Automatic annotation (TrEMBL):
Organism, as annotated: Streptomyces mesophilus
Keyword annotations of the record: DNA-binding, Transcription, Transcription regulation
UniProt biased composition (Low complexity): 1-17
Domain HTH tetR-type: 33-93
Pfam family for this entry, one: TetR_C_14
Molecular function terms from GO: DNA-binding transcription factor activity; transcription cis-regulatory region binding
Region (Disordered): 1-33
Secreted keyword on record: no
Record's protein name: TetR family transcriptional regulator
UniProt superkingdom: Bacteria
Start-end of DNA-binding region: 56-75
InterPro entries, alphabetized: Homeodomain-like_sf (IPR009057), HTH-type_TetR-like_transc_reg (IPR050109), HTH_TetR (IPR001647), MftR_C (IPR041347)
Amino acid sequence: MAETAAKKQPAAPKEATGPTGPKEPGRRERKKAATRKALSDAALELFLERGFDKVTVAQIAERADTAVTTLFAHFPGGKEALILGDGSERAASLAAAVRERGAGESVLDALEEFFAGRGIFSEDQDHAYRKQVEFVTSTPKLRAYARQLWVSCEEPLAKVMAEEAGRPEGDLSLRVLARFVLEIPDLASLEPHPRRALETVFEHLRRGWPDV
């Protein structure tokens, strides 16, 4: 799925733990999460009703019964970030997919499995989620933003691949591979069968292009 560069968000605080595991989020965290959800839900409702370009941040804030300053405090990236976030979750999830892959599983297999469960590639989507995914892929600004978010993960993905392969950080071949992998969502979003396109791309990445 294809998703303007959002401003960097501060790193999330480490999760507090207690004797029996993670503590429940406090009242302040729950309030923040509720505000973010209200803003995201309001944005999606308005975008689907009127179209992305015909909705302003002021209208979104009004629909969510909050102030525009509050909207930007939670989503400094603006309208695109309300739907697609800031990219931090992607980088962390990609790294986890590589580091936590099963014994004997290759990095490419782990990354293919990671993408297969997300966005346009997932075969287990409810109607509301599928509608949101289709809206993003059919809206040029959102698709461009989505691509930028994925490509921004190139450095952390290449770094974790180098760690796992015992190769030096900054290895050009791994940077190239990371870039190819991160272009897949945007490229596949143009295909009639994204899941099939995902499988085709990873097949090529595994064997290269010997006849070219």
